[in-house]
Amino acid sequence: MRKVRKAFRLIAAAAALTMAVGGCSDGQSLQTASRPISDLARVPATTPVALHGSLSITNGQIVGEQGEPVTLRGMSLFWSQWGPQFYTRETVDWLVSDWKVSAVRAAIAAEGDDSALQHFEREIDKASTVIEAAAANGIYVIVDWHAHREHPEEAERFLTEIARRYGHLPNLIYEPFNEPLRDGVDWSRDIKPYHQRIIAAIRAIDPDNLIIVGSPSWSQDVDIAALDPLEGSNIGYTLHYYAATHKDDLRARAEQARQAGLALMITEFGIVEATGNGPIDMASSNAWWDWAEENHISWLNWSITERDESSAALRPGTQAVAGWSDADLTPAGRILRARLRAAAAAEER
């Protein structure tokens, strides 16, 4: 029954989205950038969401509706208050059509003076644009509460509003805490109770879409979380790494968590240093990619932005939000685009 219900949701997504966001009662389509939300009813049968449907977790593995392991590959947008120009339908369309992503991450800023903590509706609108664009393209979308410190009241308000609007869609994934800090932060004492609160609030509205939780030390203490895991269904754990900084030791800890039964998803990684800058480390990046692909662990790269740092996919000063030429891409951007396109081509064979 669950599989049939979720499959129907994709077919009926246009009407449901219109009602969820308080849209046109006369049946007219809402607009996001270039195409109407009614396009959701015409998503090609070959898209990731059409192929896999609603995701769930079985035996420590993220699977599709037919029980097959699913590996999502994609890009994260940058902090939403500092890279707002890319929170558009055009950007998502281009990432799907040219970069061949199967997932995109909306990093909704929850730190600083110009974030969702002060601008709730503005940031809800950004998340909504990305969610609707992802749904119209038939890809998955992670709504990431992008914070390093706890803001439970604000996080609960934001993510339950997302659940009310979009929890009926099969492509939605929640990430309630991007990267808890390391010093003075304990999984069982601090972070687990936070997640229990947010998960309960989401589940009261959306009973089954994936929730991917963070752990201390910038979402790297997955081995510690595995000793005292959260209860509930369809709860996975994010793992963040930066290849030039984090290598065999972190991968061993991640493997320990995986062997203990945690379902992992790499919702953020870089092929450079943990600062987001520095040289590209291809040897370490390839080791991480090999491990992730071997174990069907999804990955999303940081990030779509034009900042002057080596993790940015776009060169500083890039004005276009889509249609980027090779000259618009940084070395990291060219590597990620090629990797995503090659993975998509391999899956099609």
UniProtKB/TrEMBL annotation:
<keyword id="KW-0326">Glycosidase</keyword>
<keyword id="KW-0378">Hydrolase</keyword>
<keyword id="KW-0732">Signal</keyword>
<comment type="similarity">
    <text>Belongs to the glycosyl hydrolase 5 (cellulase A) family.</text>
</comment>
<dbReference type="InterPro" id="IPR001547">
    <property type="entry name" value="Glyco_hydro_5"/>
</dbReference>
<dbReference type="Pfam" id="PF00150">
    <property type="entry name" value="Cellulase"/>
</dbReference>
<dbReference type="GO" id="GO:0004553">
    <property type="term" value="F:hydrolase activity, hydrolyzing O-glycosyl compounds"/>
</dbReference>
<feature type="domain" description="Glycoside hydrolase family 5">
    <location>
        <begin position="64"/>
        <end position="306"/>
    </location>
</feature>
<protein>
    <submittedName>
        <fullName>Cellulase family glycosylhydrolase</fullName>
    </submittedName>
</protein>
<feature type="signal peptide">
    <location>
        <begin position="1"/>
        <end position="25"/>
    </location>
</feature>
<dbReference type="InterPro" id="IPR017853">
    <property type="entry name" value="GH"/>
</dbReference>
<dbReference type="GO" id="GO:0000272">
    <property type="term" value="P:polysaccharide catabolic process"/>
</dbReference>
